[in-house]
Design brief:
This protein is 75% helix and 0% strand. It is an all-alpha fold and 76 residues long. The chain has one domain. It is elongated.
């Protein structure tokens, strides 16, 4: 379970790191100020949480030999 948590958390970190640039770019105004759009942040946070859960289920299912869990959330 520990290895599954580490792999899932690594995936979460990747999603968060890759999402920082679009969040900042979408918030730059004409005057050069950055205004954070919390709807965008919420959508990315939800996506990251679902991606983390999917990766956790997948890696844990693979380590236990459980085909149902190994499919993760999406089952493909």
């Amino acid at each position: 379970m520990k290895e599954s948590l580490i792999k899932a958390t690594s995936e979460l970190a990747r999603v968060v790191m890759l999402s920082i640039i679009p969040i900042v770019m979408s918030g730059i105004t004409d005057t050069g100020e950055i205004s954070i759009n919390y709807k965008v942040v919420s959508a990315i946070a939800l996506l990251a949480a679902l991606r983390w859960l999917d990766k956790l289920l997948h890696t844990y299912g693979e380590s236990q030999g459980d085909r149902l869990l190994a499919g993760g959330i999406t089952r493909f």
